[in-house]
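I am still getting used to backbone structure tokens and would like to learn alongside you. Would you supply a protein for us yourself, any chain you care to pick? Start from the sequence, derive the backbone structure tokens from it, and show both lines together. Go ahead whenever you are ready, and we will take it from there.
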Amino acid sequence: MKAGSVAVVVIDDDVPMWDLYELGVVCTVFGIPHRDLADPWYDLRLCSAGGGEKQPGPFGLTLHTAHGLDALRGADTVIVPSVPEACVTGERELPAELLTALRRAADSGARMVSLCAGAFALAAAGILDGRRATAHWMHTRDLARRHPRVQVDDSVLYVDDGDVLTSAGVTAGLDLCLHIVRRDLGAHVANQLARRLVVPAHRPGGQTQYVEVSVPETDDDGLAPVLQWAREHLDTPLTVDELAARADMSPRTFFRRLNAVTGSTPLQWLLTQRLARAQALLETTTLPVERISHLSGLGTGTNLRRHFTQHFGVTPTAYRRSFPPA
């Protein structure tokens, strides 16, 4: 497990205000050292084409990067946080030198990542051909239309296709960045970093919950206490009826409101929390699998192994070998 170098592509010198969020997410996650969690931390470099004096854009903000596109080659990870809106709609083509630099980075073995509309750059470079990928749900139709060789999935927050990863829009980019930290440095580091950023380490559900009418009109703040209580009692049997009663709702209402907020059914949400607890215990303790299964509320070790393998693609024992307790 290692952090490695991260090269971030800044396509426009005048980055639109909307796109500053994705760029800020990348810089916050990978550019601020947390050496008490992992040492060394990531080596971040911002890269763009051109150089010299640049005139401020319409918002009075101009970014000067220390590196050109040649710095993409040799980076362990290359991230495209966004592309200009005109490049999404097809009114403007992405610079040929950028596409060449992205292809060379991919050919040299770099892990290629896009956030939101950054997928259009990877697609234009041919890096997404034949691969499953996603983008902001407002752009996925254009992505599929303009790049028919890409297997566009508009239902997920992010796609991890091994050496190529793509995310949906805005905050989903933070989900993907934390996922990358989890892959590189383990769940404990990712969870602690998420706590410092005051965000969930993992959000269940996909971006379909945000399409069109995504936020329910009713106030669901009343769910927070019962969900927190459930997380603190994962080692006990929990039923939908019990959780609904604690939320002072009927089971049907509880089901509907939890689904509206998380995109999951109550049972799916509980399973996700139990697996996260098992994952953390595997990383931070030497407890046997049977004990971890009990503490996470999954019952027997056999049940834990089955669900863990289905969800993470590896057995609990294999996972512990990859992320041994400190």
